[in-house]
Amino acid sequence: MTPHPTLASLGWTPEFQRQIDPSELETLTPARVTGVHRARLSVLTEDGAAELTLPPDLPAGDVAVGDWVLADPATGRAARLLDRHSRIFRRAAGDASREQLIVANVDAVFITTSCSEEFNEARLERYLALCHAGGVPPVFVLTKIDRCEDPDAYMDRLRAIGPKVPAVAVNAKSADAVGALGPWCGPGQTVAFLGMSGVGKSTLASALTGLALETGEVREDDMKGHHTTTAREMLAIPGGGWLIDTPGMRELRLTDMAEGIDEAFAEIAGLAADCRFRDCTHGPEPGCAVQAAVKAGQIDAGRVERWKKLRSEDAEHTASALDRKRKGKSLSKLVKQAKRIKRGG
Ligand SMILES: Nc1nc2c(ncn2[C@@H]2O[C@H](COP(=O)(O)OP(=O)(O)OP(=O)(O)O)[C@@H](O)[C@H]2O)c(=O)[nH]1
Ligand SMILES: [Zn+2]
C-alpha cells in the first residue's frame, strides 16, 4: 500500500498557503486536481484520492489538471479554486480574448525534439512562446542522440533560439535518460512534455513513471488497486514529482498559441524599442534598430523573419476572432430586435 502523500509531495507551496485563511483549514482541505470531468473533479489530498462535485459558480472549464482547490469534506464539494502560478493555455475557439486552460501549476515543460529532420527552429520557438505566455519554465530535451553523428550541432541550434533555456541531450531509451531529467522531477515538482509525435515523449514518460505509457493507456486496475496516488492524467514519478499527461496536452496544436512571442525572442523585441518609428514594421523603413542589428551581424536574419511571421499571425488571429465576436453580437442583436417586433414592442 502506498503511503498517503503529504501536501508538499503533492506540490503544495507557501505560495498556495498564503492564499488561504488559517481558519479555512478547520473545515476545508487542500486538494490537487488530477482529473476534470463534466461536473466533477478527481483530486488527491493528504488522505488519498477523492471525487468532488463542482459548485455552481465554478464551471469545469475554469479548472485544469494540476490546479489546487479547497475541498469541503462535509459536502464533498470543491469550495474554492486557488490562484495558479503557471498554466498552459490556448485561445478559446472563436474568442481569442478567452483562454482555454490545458494544464495548471506546472514547474517545468520538457520541450522535446530529436536529432533528425523533425528538428525545426520555428516550431521550437512557438513552443517557447507558449511556455512564456503561461509562465511555465521551459527545458529543451534533445532525443535520439544515439542515432546522430553530431548531437552538439543540434545543441548549438537550441542555444541559439533559447540561450537561457536549460537543455539536455539524451538517448530516451537508455537508462541515463531519467537521471538527465531528474533535476526537474524532484519531490513536489510537476512536469509535462511538449513535442511532435515520435520524438520520444512516451518513451521518456514511461521511463520517468515506470508505467507502460506507449499505448496511452493506464489500466483501470491501477486506479483502484495499489497505486492510489496514481491518477490517469497526473502520474507519480517514483522519488518525488508528478507528470501531467492529459489528452488536451497531447492534442495541443501550434496554431493555438498566443502571446509569449516577445519573450521567446527577447533580444529582438528589446531592440525594437529603439526603432525610430513606433509602428516600425522592421522592414525597409529608416531608423530600424532590428535591421541595423541584422546588418551588424548581431542577430540572425532568419530569426527576425520568424519573429515577424509569428507576430503577424498572432495579430491576424486576434483580429479575426474579434471580428467573429462582433458579427456574433450583431446577429444576436438582430434576433432580439426581430423578437421584439414580433411581440409588437
Ligand atoms: N534510438 C532511439 N530511439 C528513440 C529515442 N527516443 C524515442 N525513440 C523511439 O522512437 C519511437 C517513437 O517514440 P515515442 O516515445 O513513442 O514518441 P512520442 O513522442 O511519444 O510520440 P507520440 O506518442 O506519437 O506522441 C519509438 O520507437 C522509440 O523507441 C532515442 O532517444 N533513441
Ligand atoms: Zn524596426
UniProtKB/TrEMBL annotation:
Residue sites binding GTP per the record: T143, K144, I145, D146, G195, M196, S197, G198, V199, G200, K201, S202, T203
UniProt domain EngC GTPase: residue ranges: 104-250
Keyword rRNA-binding: yes
One of the Pfam families matching this protein, by short name: RsgA_GTPase
Cofactor requirements of the protein: Zn(2+)
UniProt-annotated location(s): Cytoplasm
Residues involved in Zn(2+) binding: C275, C280, H282, C288
A molecular function (GO) term: GTP binding
Main location as per UniProt: cytoplasm
Alphabetical list of SUPFAM superfamilies matching this protein: P-loop containing nucleoside triphosphate hydrolases
GO CC annotation, single: cytoplasm
Principal EC category: hydrolase
Family: Belongs to the TRAFAC class YlqF/YawG GTPase family. RsgA subfamily.
Protein name per UniProt: Small ribosomal subunit biogenesis GTPase RsgA
Record organism: Albidovulum denitrificans
